[in-house]
Write a structure and sequence with these properties.
Elements lengths: L1 H19 L3 H18 L1 H4 L30 H37 L1 H16 L2 H12 L3 H10 L2 H15 L3 H8 L4 H37 L10 H8 L8 H27 L2 H4 L2
Helix pairs in contact: 1-12, 2-4, 2-12, 4-5, 4-7, 4-8, 4-10, 4-12, 5-8, 6-7, 7-10, 8-10, 10-11, 10-12, 11-12
Length: 287
Amino acid sequence: MMEFVRGKTIAKVRGFWRVYRKNRAAVGGLVLLLTLAAVAILAPTLTPFEPRRIIATPLIAPSQLHPMGTDNLGRDILAGVLYGARTSFMVGFLAALTAAMVGTIVGAFSGFYGGYKDEILMRITELFQVIPRLFIAVAAVAIIGPSVWNLIWVIGLTSWPTTARLLRAEILSIRERPFVEAVIGLGSGQTKVLFEEILPNATPPVIVSASFEVASAIILEAGLTFLGLGDANVPSLGIMLHEAQPYLMTAWWMSIFPGIIIVLAVLSLNLVGDGLNEAFNPKLRER
């Protein structure tokens, strides 16, 4: 039995990769994403400098010793970018995971049980959607204080409505299918049907949505820290952009390199999301 399940899983993975690799842009995005993630993780081994320590003369242009130059205080920008990318990826992935978990719980119960529970949960979801997310995040961080973990919680808890509505729509479609009705007819309880039959078939769109949410969270984190709502003691690409404002004309390297990393990270995640969307599409799998 275990060999059968393992073989079926391997076949699904191979089928998924066969469709995914047809999208060259998605494969390039995956390679770029893995490269950026590896660089962020290996930051301590890629630079001998600490990101917030003054180690040289201020505003040194890119050179062999400092490939991205130094900032207005004499800190190495390459170190700041590497460690800042680590912070951005951590916030992005953990915030997206938080949003996916909350959105899955709300969307699953709303779509499966329906009735007044669906009405209440959807009205709450709409309330979160009509208020601009940046406005909620700015207000929340200003109240509870700027820190990396506060940013993760705030971004995650303001990003779940998209996942909730998407999953709810999937469950409304799946719960009417014959195989679900057959399982219910055999006497399976509602909880078992939801978690063992419906959710496994409804999660692919959630995974696709989560990849886009990571990109959105990275942008939001950079925006909040750019506005001064980040932890000044933790390296951040947004803080680097904030500090570079007065030197846009005289020290272009202070802003261009953190900006490029943000653009590349968001671009790679969006390309991966497009690839996942195609790979999870059953019509494309049948080709």
